[in-house]
Amino acid sequence: MSVTDDFGPDGVKCVVWDLDGTLWDEIAVESATDDLPTPRPAALAAIDALAARGVLSSIASRSAPSVLDRLDAVPEVRARFLAPQVSWQDKSESLRRIAKDLGIAVDALVLVDDSPYERAEVEALLPGVRTLAPEDVPALLAAFEGREVTAESRERVRRYRTEEARRAEGERFEGSREEFLRWCDMRLTVGAATADEIPRALELAARTHRLNSSGLTPDRLRELASSDGHELYTARMTDRFGEYGIIGAALVDRTHRADGGTPATWSVPLLALSCRVAGRGAAAAFLFRLMERAREAGAEEFRVTLRPTDANLEMRILLRQAGLRRTDATGTPTSTTPTATATAADSAVLGRTLQGDLPGSPAWLHVSDREDAEA
Fold it and tell me: 135: which DSSP letter?
């Protein structure tokens, strides 16, 4: 796919680079010495420019695994790449492994490769992945020009490197998964978004897919967040390895009020979380804390707008586990067809009462309101 064909940079999280003929001119395994070929300065500059915009880089090369060992001996080059794959396996398989290791969707990858055959193999087996020839890289960079770069974006590469350290420590840890999570000392804080957090919330709305309830566009999110009766919440997380930064955003609509003026319902048109925290309980903890805050504010019902997609099965399971079920216009649970309850042609409202017991956050995760955390 050409870089100019329906190219949306918001969906790109990682650019995967071939080595021979792409990152450098020569063929590494044919070198007469252990020295690697000299990387093309333009390729390194492009990788650095992408990193400054929050886009990761990785490697997928059909070559001897020893090439990666040799690359480890050149730390100024190796440090630019996360989850590299160097083996004789198909490029499509390498991309699947990269996506899995990084915790992102395969469709969030772009492959840069000088070989038309390799690009065709990936396009055939991974039709959602965009492929580019090296000469298309300037156009790739141009697609990011003018795009807002948040502080979170600038820190993304460093945070993914920290994530590699977490994963390596988890592999060495002698104990259960839950024991490891407890040892990590994860702390989640929830609070109303400040002005400087809004760009990151908009970014989450645009870039997250696995843990995104509705796919609300950034423009619509910005419009709703500034309207009366709406408030934007964010979630931050840390652990013993460092800061995750802002990993969640939720827009709350409190315009549905009871006769006494108290918000009778908290509606959430968007709940979005970074895929970096998938599997650690952060999404559940954020959702459950919002439900608790709603009840503390006097609300009797909690609703979430859901637009099911192929990517957000994890979010759908979470909402069901939280006790949310499809509702009609009055909030009454129903088993009618999706079009009878949808807020749009492809979305629906899920809700539950806030009376009685609410689900609790995972035992290994410390959750607090941000005001309390800063006190």
Answer: G
For 216: left if phi > 0, alpha if psi spans -120 to 50, otherwise beta; the answer is beta
- Contact of 344 with 307, CB cutoff 8 Å: yes
| CA dist., res. 69 & res. 328, Å (int) | 59
Q: Give residue-wise pLDDT tens across range 117-149.
A: 999 999 999 999 999 999 999 999 998 887 777
Question: Considering all CA atoms of the chain, what is the largest pairwise distance in Å, rounded to the nearest integer?
Answer: 82
pLDDT digits (tens, 9 = 90+) for 95-120: 999 999 888 889 999 999 999 999 99
In 3D, which of 150, 305, 315 has the Cα closest to residue 221?
305
Q: Are 275 and 255 in contact (CB under 8 A)?
A: no
In one letter, which amino acid is 56? L
Give the pairing of strands 14-17 and 56-62: parallel
Q: What predicted TM-score, i.e. pTM, was given to this entire model?
A: 0.72
H or E element that contains 122: helix 116-125
Report helix, strand or coil for 358. coil
